[in-house]
Amino acid sequence: MPPWHRPTPPTTSRAALTVTGQGTVSAKPDTVLIALGVRTEHIHIQEALADNAKRTDAVIGALKALGVQTEDLETTAFSIYPQYEHHNGADVLSSYGVEHWLEITVRDPKKAGAIYEAAVAHGANLARGLEFRLANEQAYYQQALTLAVKNAKEKALAIARALGLPLYDTPLELKEQPPARSTPYHPAVLSISSSAPPVQTQDVVITAVVEAVFAYSFIS
User: Fold this and answer.
1) I need a labelling partner for 124 at 20 to 30 A (CA). Which of 13, 16, 73, 134 fits?
2) What angle do CA 161, 163, 165 make, to 5 degrees?
3) Helix runs in 31-103, H state only
4) Other CB atoms within 10 A of residue 202 CB
5) Could you tell me the CA-to-CA distances from 70 to 53, 63, 120, 184 in Å, in that order?
6) Mean pLDDT of 148-154
7) How many Cβ atoms sit within 10 Å of the Cβ of residue 153?
8) CA-wise closest residue to 100 among 40, 144, 142
9) Alpha carbon distance 210, 22 (integer Å)
10) Are strands 185-186 and 167-168 parallel, antiparallel or unpaired?
């Protein structure tokens, strides 16, 4: 009976099968991205801007007091927009709204709840959510990639065994598929009366996918 593995495929071989391999690695997150904002409104634009700047400065100061570094605070959006009311068939300017969004990188997920509490207490009234991440995600992706290649080879071997065909060990082609992020993202809603929300961390899942083409030979 011929062996199921053969070391090197012939370069002219046309008998081949294509398989997709997937590898997954999960790990506890060590970083959290939080999106918080300050929204103010006033009939005069100067007052809306001044109030927003004051409250945003207070939020930033409170976050720095909790240990958030300057490089971990980033303004991601700043908007000014008029508000209108409908009177007697016409839209009348009633006030101006100002929004200032911050993205906060938290190096300790356990501090996420305290970050929310401090931000709300000092003027934050908007939130888009939080995202768990890994600071060294590439190292975990390399592990997942290794598992994906192994999975592809195991699939090819299973198919070859089912067909009774010897399989060459070395693939003719091996293509890495673009990695898809599968990091958990959780929406959050804040109000001025919010206390520290209980933030439950979830494992970050890293997935790698490869496409492999293996040659096989027919049994004569």
Assistant:
1) 134
2) 70
3) 45-65
4) 13
5) 17, 10, 19, 25
6) 96
7) 21
8) 40
9) 7
10) unpaired
CA distance 67 to 120: 17
Inter-residue contact 166 to 1 (CB < 8 Å): no
Please name which of 108, 87, 95, 90 lies closest in space to residue 30, comparing C-alpha atoms: 108
**C-beta of residue 174 within 8 angstroms of C-beta of residue 149:** yes
Residues 98 and 48: their CA atoms lie apart, in Å, by 6
Cα→Cα distances 40→78, 116, 121, 122, 212, Å: 12, 18, 15, 13, 55
Q: Please tell me whether the overall predicted TM-score, pTM, comes out greater than 0.85 for this model.
A: no
Quick: pLDDT tens for 159-214: 999 988 888 888 999 999 987 655 444 444 444 444 556 666 778 899 999 999 99
Q: Which ranges of the chain does DSSP label H, i.e. alpha helix?
A: 45-65, 112-121, 137-163
CB 40 within 8 A of CB 125: no
